[in-house]
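ARCHIVE CARD
CATEGORY: sequence design from structure
SOURCE FIELD: tokenized fold
FIELD CONTENT:
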């Protein structure tokens, strides 16, 4: 026996290929087949293989009709039952997940130790929204979600070479994911505090100006205080610092939709941005550098570029944002 779900055509654009007119009937199986992890790669990760591509082979969800879904590859410590989820990747098609050794190593280092072997659980989650705005099962208010069986693997991660920021005001560093002299990180800089870069392994200090590094050079200065995306190369002795300030904006925030946004802080260990703030009844979004060229909205577990405003009620909140490699994201909004 099958359940009969009536779905309007408008809500199905881009999702259901089998519908051709309003009122088409979609039959959902009593026991939809969830996605599954068919095979996983060897997860003994090594720096000298950083550019190699790893493949997690999956089978897509089968809800009983032809549909598309958003897929999430996730991990947690074995036995944690995904109470604390590490998000690895997301995509809109039920195809295999591919990720480089360096990228996977960097993501998992946020939750697991370097130079040790950890037992890690993996799963694939599929979210299917087949209609919009009615509140019925399968809509954005009550989504269909299917989760694979858990697959457990032994994972060995490698530690990353680093450059420490000396005299920057806080303990922070940029890292080389491939160990090849190319370093990157998000750093909080003070315009009044020029800093140098120290290679603790080689005991070499770098300073510089105008994008050029020099050994034992002068402190590196920036024009404004806040978060920056920093790159440095000890191979060609160059560096760059680009403002990267994630902020909260919206009618619920103290400045409304006007600048400046309410700036969030970055936690390098978890790879998340967070803020504790008093909000009014209204809406919020996340955006970069007080501008709309890059902005995230939607639902807390499915933030997309240019997505919908997020409604909130008045109160004091701690908000944590995770930005994925494809510039989508997820967030938690917790009232204190």
């Amino acid at each position: 026996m099958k359940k009969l779900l009536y779905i309007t055509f408008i809500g199905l654009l881009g999702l259901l290929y089998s519908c051709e007119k309003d009122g088409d009937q979609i039959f959902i199986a009593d026991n939809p087949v969830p996605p599954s992890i068919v095979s996983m790669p060897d997860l003994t990760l090594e720096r000298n293989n950083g550019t190699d591509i790893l493949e997690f082979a999956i089978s897509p969800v089968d809800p009983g009709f032809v549909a598309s879904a958003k897929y999430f590859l996730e991990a947690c410590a074995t036995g944690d039952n995904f109470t604390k989820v590490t998000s690895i990747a997301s995509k809109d098609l039920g195809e295999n997940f591919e990720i480089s050794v360096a990228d996977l190593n960097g993501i998992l280092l946020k939750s697991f130790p370097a130079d040790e072997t950890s037992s890690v659980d993996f799963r694939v989650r599929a979210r299917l929204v087949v209609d919009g705005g009615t509140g019925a099962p399968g809509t954005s208010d009550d989504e269909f979600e299917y989760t694979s069986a858990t697959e457990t693997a032994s994972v060995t991660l490698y530690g990353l070479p680093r450059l420490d920021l000396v005299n920057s005001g806080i303990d922070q560093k940029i890292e080389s994911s491939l160990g090849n002299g190319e370093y990157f990180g998000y750093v909080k800089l003070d315009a009044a505090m020029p800093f140098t870069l120290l290679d603790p392994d080689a005991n070499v200090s770098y300073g510089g100006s105008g994008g050029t590094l020099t050994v034992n050079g002068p402190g590196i200065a920036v024009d404004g205080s806040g978060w920056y995306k920093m790159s440095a190369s000890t191979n060609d002795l160059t560096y760059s610092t680009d403002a990267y300030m994630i902020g909260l904006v919206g009618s619920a925030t103290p400045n409304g939709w006007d600048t400046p946004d309410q700036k969030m802080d970055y936690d390098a260990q978890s790879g998340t941005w967070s803020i504790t703030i008093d909000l009014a009844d209204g809406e919020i979004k996340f955006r970069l550098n007080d501008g709309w060229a890059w902005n995230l909205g939607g639902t807390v577990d499915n933030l997309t570029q240019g997505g919908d405003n997020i409604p909130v009620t008045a109160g004091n909140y701690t908000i944590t944002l995770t930005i994925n490699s494809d510039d989508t994201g997820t967030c938690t909004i917790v009232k204190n």
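CARD ANNOTATION: The chain has three domains: 2-156, 162-243, 246-335. The chain is about 0% helix and 50% strand.
SHELF: design records, drawer C
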